[in-house]
Write a structure and sequence with these properties.
By secondary structure, this protein is of the alpha+beta class. Helix content is 49%, strand content 20%. The protein has 3 domains: 103 residues, PAS domain (Beta-Lactamase, 2-Layer Sandwich), CATH 3.30.450.20; 85 residues; 142 residues, Heat Shock Protein 90, CATH 3.30.565. The structure holds adenosine-5'-triphosphate and magnesium ion (MG). One of its GO terms (cellular component) is membrane.
């Protein structure tokens, strides 16, 4: 431990401190790494505050104990601690990443470097061991990976939906048109054969049924893939979505969107899906009279707002929800994919608003799919 000169009354400067104390102070100040010495047999000979923080032992508890204490029973059974010392002694250094064990027996993912320490004549004095707790890093890397996988899955799903929507339109849609023409032809022939002046009620019924089927088909494929998004762009698609919503649910819906929204396909689809989900919530939960969807472009990005004048959301329950809701979560995830921010603003009786900001750089990115 550093020798503190209390007689100096705290006025001691760094240059007054003996060189070996300076090293000790330096090592002790490092809190993110466990830095300690092992004797040639692998017993702990020194301990820093980082080691105490990461592994949970105070110096009294650990000094003198064999360093295999930090290894898992499986690694001990496999002879790993001795092997690592042997490699360090022979080659000068060994590096390893794996599970290590804390004082409370919990495990952490560690990066470990063991270096042999020798005197001028080459006699082995012991080993310097530096351990870094990689748990947080590994967790962040796993989260990053998971979110990348989610984005790729979403892109794949959207592409698949696009394909199905196209198939429905091009294949079933054409067949329905042919069917309708067939019924009309049959109807004309029937009238010619029977001499009837009016179309048969059954034929009219059939035609109406075909019309209903065609409308359902259009609705289903539009739900799968917004038809105008690919052809006319985000602004027209949002206008269509809002108008269609109003017709479907009888809620006044106003779209305030610029004529040219100038985004790439992924950003356009993301914004479209968010508005779609927000409007579904308005239909399901709000009892609103009016909802306003507004998209504003600025130099540094764009702002999207969906606000209704309905009953608002109930206060957030303190107890865990018995049913999982994914709508707002999904919106958050989509916003995160475009590096934006999202806030929900609601009070019981005072409507529900979703405010989103996307940075400019995320609206026209270089995306691989
Ligand atoms: N416009 C709104 N008006 C009032 N309450 C809303 C509104 N939007 C969301 N909420 C509240 O927020 C909750 C969570 O919404 P969320 O979309 O996450 O889930 P959900 O709509 O209940 O289910 P789903 O997972 O099918 O979307 C809703 O259950 C509702 O209580
Ligand atoms: Mg919902």
């Amino acid at each position: 431990m550093p020798s503190h000169d209390s007689s100096a009354g705290g006025n001691r400067s760094y240059s007054d401190i003996a060189i070996e104390d300076r090293y000790q102070m330096l090592i002790d100040a490092v809190r993110d790494y466990a830095i300690f010495m092992l004797d040639p047999a692998g017993r702990v000979a020194s301990w820093n505050s980082g080691a105490q923080r990461i592994k949970g032992y105070s110096p009294d508890e650990i000094i003198g104990r064999h360093f295999s204490t930090f290894y898992t029973p499986e690694d001990i059974a496999a002879g790993k601690p001795a092997r690592e010392l042997e490699i360090a002694a022979t080659t000068g250094r060994v590096e390893d990443e794996g599970w290590r064990v804390r004082r409370d027996h919990s495990r952490f993912w560690a990066n470990v470097v063991i270096s042999a320490v020798r005197d001028a004549s080459g006699t082995l004095l012991g080993f310097a061991k530096v351990t870094r707790d990689m748990t947080e890093r590994t967790r962040l890397a796993a989260l990053e990976h998971a979110s990348e996988v989610t984005t790729q899955m979403q892109i794949a799903r959207e592409n698949e939906q696009k394909r199905i929507a196209r198939e429905l339109h091009d294949d079933l849609g054409q067949q329905l048109t042919a069917l309708k023409m067939g019924v009309a032809l049959l109807q004309t022939r029937l009238q010619m054969v029977t001499g009837l002046t009016e179309p048969l009620a059954e034929a009219r019924e059939l035609q109406a049924q075909v019309d209903t089927m065609a409308a359902s088909l259009r609705r289903i494929s539009a739900d799968l893939r917004p038809p105008l998004l690919d052809d006319l762009g985000l602004s027209s698609a949002l206008d269509w979505l809002v108008e269609d919503f109003s017709k479907r649910y009888g809620i006044r819906a106003i779209a305030r969107v610029p004529t040219d929204s100038d985004t790439d396909e992924f950003a356009a689809l993301t914004i479209f899906r968010i508005v779609q989900e927000a409007l579904t919530n308005v239909a399901r939960h709000s009892q609103a009279h009016t909802v306003v969807v507004s998209l504003k472009r600025a130099e540094d990005g764009c702002m999207l707002d969906i606000s209704d004048d309905g009953v608002g959301a109930p206060p957030v329950p303190t107890a865990p929800r018995d049913r999982k809701s994914f709508g707002l979560l999904g919106m958050r995830e989509r916003v995160r994919q475009l590096h934006g921010t999202i806030t929900f603003d609601t009070k019981p009786g005072a409507g529900f608003s979703v405010h989103i900001c996307f940075p400019e750089s995320s609206l026209k990115g270089d995306r691989s799919s």
